[in-house]
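Q: Antitoxin HigA-2, please. Structure only.
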Amino acid sequence: MTAFESVSKGLEEALAFASGDLAGAKVHEVTVAEVDVAEVRQRTGLSQAEFAKSIGVAKGTLLNWEHGRRHPTGPAQVLLALIDKKPSVVQDLLRGA
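A: Structure for Antitoxin HigA-2:
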């Protein structure tokens, strides 16, 4: 199968899935644990402003998460779960960049 045929087949499968045809579809569900954002930040030793900047969010967003008015979702939730497991992960990766 050529690369073009492979891509075409993949696109056809994606369109079928989007239309509700689940036959032959592989669906991967990932569950990311919720974290206590304030606790995670405190374990990094960073201020609210420093932590917000280090993960690329506005300080107001961080405050909303810490006070429970909003909850991180998607990539932010994954990043916070990683930081929960290893508080230095962001600094380690940025130093290596």
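A: Brief note, in case it's useful. The helical segments are 3-18, 37-44, 48-55, 59-66, 74-85, 89-96.
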